[in-house]
Amino acid sequence: MAEAAGQSVEIVEVGPRDGYQGIGPFIPTATKIAFLERLAATGLWRIEIGSFVSATALPQLSDTAEVLGACAGIAGIRPQVLVPNEKYGRAALAAGSTFLAFVLSVSEAHNRSNVRRHLLESVEEYRRLIAALPDGIDVRLNLATSFDCPFDGRVAEADVLALLEELVPILPDAEICLCDTTGRASPDHVERLVAACHARFPQARRWALHAHDTYGLGLANVYAAWKQGIRVFDASFGGLGGCPFAPGATGNVATEDLAWMFRRMGVATGVDLDALVPVACDGAAIPGGLPGGRVRHALTASAR
Amino acid sequence: MAEAAGQSVEIVEVGPRDGYQGIGPFIPTATKIAFLERLAATGLWRIEIGSFVSATALPQLSDTAEVLGACAGIAGIRPQVLVPNEKYGRAALAAGSTFLAFVLSVSEAHNRSNVRRHLLESVEEYRRLIAALPDGIDVRLNLATSFDCPFDGRVAEADVLALLEELVPILPDAEICLCDTTGRASPDHVERLVAACHARFPQARRWALHAHDTYGLGLANVYAAWKQGIRVFDASFGGLGGCPFAPGATGNVATEDLAWMFRRMGVATGVDLDALVPVACDGAAIPGGLPGGRVRHALTASAR
Q1: Which one of A189, A218, A257 has the shortest CB-CB distance to B215?
Q2: Residue A30's Cα: distance from chain center in Å?
Q3: CA–CA separation, A169 and A166 (whole Å)
Q4: Where is the Pyruvate carboxyltransferase domain (chains A, B) (predicted)?
């Protein structure tokens, strides 16, 4: 383990946002808060706790303001919320959020479908939101369809870089997350894009990867990104996060699978895997959820 | 895909051996032969069709001689059979096998449990089998527990290299397969061991990786090995191959997942993925089987 000695990564738990958003039956707010308490107790301090979005479009996350309020009482948690435009960015700030994840898509078709705007409009809304940002707010940029688009297929690396030419100068301090929205990124693709981003934007402070495991490549893609120097990874407890438009497709790479891989590599995550597995099992059992991942099966099936 | 252009890999379909051996209800011989015909028709020409082993220990594979005989009628197939010692190696040759996969374990404890011999006895049996080998027989060496042992935990790279110092000179022409028996190898471990093997044994003709997906790391480990130059990979259709000693644990990395990953990478496998998916679905439905893998779900759930 010489190579990894002393290294660490940061896991961003996105189950309470990406994992829940496709679940039909409303998860009671108290249940959401109880899961946040249990997740934070395992050492998962960065948690995407919800979205500020249209309650009509995503009723499951309509209680995000209330959940955010409850985070004040959860030791160690650093809650981030997803926002799809300027208006909801301001709403999140008004609700007391101090960590915004602004999402837009590299693919024009997906951006229109996901946030109902032309890509250039999204860029301008991001610019205005950042220009008016109060002090002390952390920002992440989520670049959906950085590898592949459900409508247009493989996304060219040049398109990602061209969009970043617009976005990075707006706030070089933002964390930039390359999102594999469809799960169709392959590890060689991840390697190439991450290397190109690092080379082109040395001023960007920090990069992250958001991997889906729909085709079983979640951990392979995380490993490829890690080899290229990425140290921040999104994941979802119980592997929650199936896409409502692709029944049977699984969701985000499972937090417990990620924690297991890095533990085997001797890379610190700060996560207590033994404490996480029962939470992941309970998350996977949320009615209407579409769980994934291997490690909770392997660790609960065997006494070893 | 510049990096991968023009590259190819060889997939060894091991479902009919490793996938079936843990299944309790006997799979009728005609069913086994029908699956081989369908698998070969997808382009999977190298197939491990069974083992010559004690019928008491592994009744599921007691019909391997008959299955091997039927392969003469299957276009394009190159059947290999697993043998655990000299006696069964000779039995396989007597039955007409021309491709033997000799298995022994790096870990003494696992070797005793798996093939009921001291490791040095296994080495000597391999030596004698090779010394008396007729012309025209291909040989592979399966090194079980090359990364981790169910009894002793992580296996030191030095132990693998020391064992190979004995084995490689016996037949440098043999294909050597590093087997992740427990699925607990991590991709950095795979990278290091493969690099060390290549450096120490330049005379060895060819290396392979046998990955399990118990902890979701099958494809990550395959990718890591591919980056280090390995071009032969074992896999099991439908991800069959759960370990009877770890209920809930999944088996070999799924052939269709491997074929998908390499297709996305632009690396040729010779496998027709669209033809393979229905075979994998039927394989996953074999009574008593413990299937795995993601790609058959993703591709059958979505019209895309």
Answers
A1: A257
A2: 22
A3: 7
A4: 9-277
Q: What pLDDT shows up at residue B94?
A: 98
Tell me whether B152 touches chain A (CB under 8 Å).
Answer: no
Residue A245 has pLDDT above 70, yes or no: no
Q: How confident is the model at residue A6 (pLDDT cuts 50, 70, 90)?
A: confident
What CATH topology corresponds to A7-301? TIM Barrel (3.20.20)
The answer on pLDDT for B254 being more than 80 is yes
Q: Is A189 in CB contact (< 8 Å) with chain B?
A: yes
Strands, DSSP E only, in chain A? Answer: 10-13, 46-51, 78-83, 99-105, 138-144, 148-149, 153-154, 175-179, 206-210, 232-235
Distance CA B179, CA A279 (A): 32
**Residue B104 contacts A where some CB pair is shorter than 8 Å:** no
Query: Is B214 in Cβ contact with A219 (below 8 Å)?
Result: no
- B213 contacts chain A (CB < 8 A): yes
- Please state the rounded mean pLDDT for residues B173-191: 97
pLDDT per residue over A282-296, tens digit each? 999 999 998 999 999
Q: Which residues of A are catalytic?
A: 243
Report, as residue numbers or ranges, the catalytic residues of B: 243
Per-residue pLDDT band for B243 (boundaries 50, 70, 90) equals low
Q: What is the CATH number of domain B2-301?
A: 3.20.20.70
Which among B95, B166, B249 is positioned nearest to A296, based on CA atoms?
B249
Q: Which residues lie closer than 8 Å to A70 by C-beta, 6 or more apart?
A: A33, A36
Domain ranges of chain A: 7-301
Higher pLDDT pick, A248 / B75: B75
Dihedral, CA of residue A186, residue A187, residue A193 and residue A196, to nearest 10? -150
Chain-chain contact of A215 with B261 (C-beta, under 8 angstroms): yes
* pLDDT above 70 (res B260): yes
Residue bearing tokens 């301001």: A90
The residue-averaged pLDDT of B227-252 equals 83
The SS3 call for residue B50 is strand
User: Chain A: nearest CA to B214, how far in angstroms?
Assistant: 6
**Does the pLDDT at position A266 exceed 90?**
yes
User: From the list B150, B217, B298, which residue is nearest A248 (CB)?
Assistant: B298
Q: Please list, in sequence order, all residues whose beta carbon lies within 8 angstroms of the beta carbon of residue A278, skipping any fewer than 6 positions away.
A: none
